[in-house]
Amino acid sequence: MESRRRSTKPPEELKIAKERITILFGEAEKMVRNDKKLANRYVELARKIGMRYNISIPSYLRKLVCRKCKEYMYPGITAKISTKKGYLRKECLQCGKVTKIRIKKK
Ligand SMILES: [Zn+2]
């Protein structure tokens, strides 16, 4: 249970904040090929909105953020993805952090 009740924001504001996070990740995806720094900036902004409003970033978007350096991990550009023996290996090309995820067999 969350005990921090002081930061309660009106539902309408939370809805807008969530939309902004999704939009910022979308913009980051568009920009990453041309400008990695700008893409990282969008991701940083999205994270800041999440913190301010106490909203967690959806897991499908959180996967695109490096757990170590918090930068945008885009496969083939800022991250290297490979699969090996039932594992997905993600390497952040900005800080070198390697994450392994087990792939579920069908
Ligand atoms: Zn990293």
Describe this structure in words.
The chain is α+β, with helices and mostly antiparallel strands and 106 residues long. It has a single domain (11-102), classed as Immunoglobulin FC, subunit C (Single alpha-helices involved in coiled-coils or other helix-helix interfaces, Up-down Bundle), CATH 1.20.5. The chain has 3 helices and 3 strands. It has helices at 11-31, 36-53, 59-62; strands at 79-84, 87-92, 98-102. Strands 1-2-3 form a 3-stranded antiparallel beta sheet, with no helix packed on it. A hairpin with a 5-residue loop joins strand 2 and strand 3 (98-102). Helix 1 runs antiparallel to helix 2 (36-53). It is globular, with a radius of gyration of 16 Å. The N and C termini lie far apart (35 Å). The mean pLDDT is 91. Zinc ion is lined by residues 66, 68-69, 71, 92, 94-95, 97.
Provide a quick synopsis of the model.
The protein has 106 residues and is of the alpha+beta class.
What does the secondary structure layout of this molecule look like, with pairings?
Layout: H1 11-31, H2 36-53, H3 59-62, E1 79-84, E2 87-92, E3 98-102
Antiparallel strand pairs: 1-2, 2-3
Residues 66, 68-69, 71, 92, 94-95, 97 line the site of zinc ion.
- Cα Rg: 16 Å
N to C succession of SSEs:
HHHEEE
Give the overall pLDDT as a whole number: 91
CATH superfamily: Immunoglobulin FC, subunit C
Question: What ranges have pLDDT less than 50 throughout 5 or more consecutive residues?
Answer: none
**How many angstroms separate the termini?**
35 Å
What is the 3D form? globular
Per CATH, which architecture? Up-down Bundle
- DSSP strand (E) fraction? 15-25%
User: In the residues, how many domains can be counted?
Assistant: 1
Number of distinct helices: 3
User: Which small compounds were modeled alongside the protein?
Assistant: zinc ion
| Biggest sheet overview | 3 strands, antiparallel
Total beta-strand segments: 3
How are the strands ordered across the major sheet?
Answer: 1-2-3
The first-level CATH class name: Mainly Alpha
